Amino acid sequence: MTNQTKLNRRFFMKTVGAGAVIGGTMGSVSLSAAAMGQMGGMSDTVNFDAGYDRVGTNSIKFDYIKMINPGKTLDVGMGIADMDFRALPAVTEALKKRLEIENWGYELPPMDYQDNIVAWNKRRYGVDIPKANILNSLGVLDGVLSILLAFGKKGDHVLLTTPTYSSFFHTIHDARMHSAESEMKQVNGRYQVDYDDFEKQIAGGIKLFILCNPQNPTGNCWTADELRKMGDICNKHGCLVIADEIHCDFVMDGHKYTPYASLGQAYAQNSFTLKSASKSFNLAGHRTAYFYSDNRSYIDRVLDNGHQRLLLNIMGMIASNVALQHGDDYIDEQNAYLTENTRYVAKFCDDRIPLIKYHPQEGTYLAWLDCTGLYDKLDAHKKAKELTDYNTKNNVTEMDFFNGEVIKNYTAGRYVKEWVMDNARVDINAGQDYGKGGDGFMRMNLATNRAMITKALTNIEAAINAL
């Protein structure tokens, strides 16, 4: 190869984008169109009420949780944020088709993969995504980490509106940066950003803000006005908005998801948006996501800093591609079922578990439960302090099984989580894992069938009644 024809892959990617690589080479590659995800005429019917038994499938939600709780019985796993439904049949059929090709060498993505990302966002939300600015990632957090490393430096602070997704804290730590928390406040039963505190912290020099839209775990589908208020503050002070919108396809009846990048160029040019079909269609095991910015210089900066993800897991890209092509009805039916789940939980708690109050959610499939009454009934804060003091006095150290970090303090939320596991045989998440404002709350995954939800709530009710 001569110097004239030798190409630097990063330069080529920056110049023409991954779409050109895929489109420009596919003509010479002999691959089955069916295996690449172009699977017309497949049924998308799924009985969500039937659920899907995942015990014994190596699932983290069930099998791993049982493994790290030896000697304990787990009836219902409701901690890990994935779903217990049968997958979109079109996805399963496409993957079966690819399995007929008995070779697993390097493989390009489906030729229309990015086209279907663009089409899904346009069709569902009216957003025009610049195709050349789409970057692959191994997951949303992989993309967040790349953005943090490209736009920040060691020791920087990254703003979060809390309670928020617990893994943001770990990703910020992985970037050798520090989390800054702006605790939200509840107004008439709905979480709102404390804009005075939000601006005070950003004006103090914070240049990176991770927006969760919809918000995990509080369930907010942020309105356009709310997003503009946050965006105006960020733009005023030169703070980059990193919008994690992975839960965007989960919107409860009567509510609306507003993409941050849809607010106008002033907002789109100073932001990244991160998404994945993995959350919407329960494809997390495939490790496939994407992110983009309308600002090409931002994309180039991430690439120049070393983010190279042209080729992902081929099964994940096929699965995502098919889901984005054939998944509209599946998502709509799934949301209708999830909406009914939220109503069921709200009524059950109101009627039968007065110590737990369901916090109305607008998006996500994650219920945010006000368990203040249960915390008080268990004297959880006092018990947690006693356990922390005991561990400190006896030099007892514990390791977090999920992130490998040493657990320093035994929180009240952890005490309640373990009490629920021990006495109700249900796994739910401690509210304090989600930052300031999480004390007194627990997070429960409702992406399962009604029978499992009934089992979990009935178990919890019985455990509380036995106190």
Which structural traits does this protein have?
alpha/beta, four-stranded antiparallel β-sheet, 17 helices, 467 residues, globular, single chain, 2 domains, Aspartate Aminotransferase, domain 2, disordered N terminus, Aspartate Aminotransferase, domain 1, seven-stranded mixed β-sheet
Q: What this model shows, in words?
A:
The protein is of the alpha/beta class and 467 residues long. It folds into 2 domains: 60-86 and 329-465, Aspartate Aminotransferase, domain 1 (Alpha-Beta Complex); 113-326, Aspartate Aminotransferase, domain 2. The chain is built from 17 helices and 17 strands. Strands 2-10-9-8-7-3-4 form a 7-stranded mixed β-sheet, with helices on both faces. A 4-stranded antiparallel β-sheet has the order 11-12-17-16. The longest helix is centred in the last third of the chain and has 25 residues, at 328-352. The radius of gyration is 23 Å and the shape is globular. The chain starts with 8 loop residues before the first helix and ends with a helix.
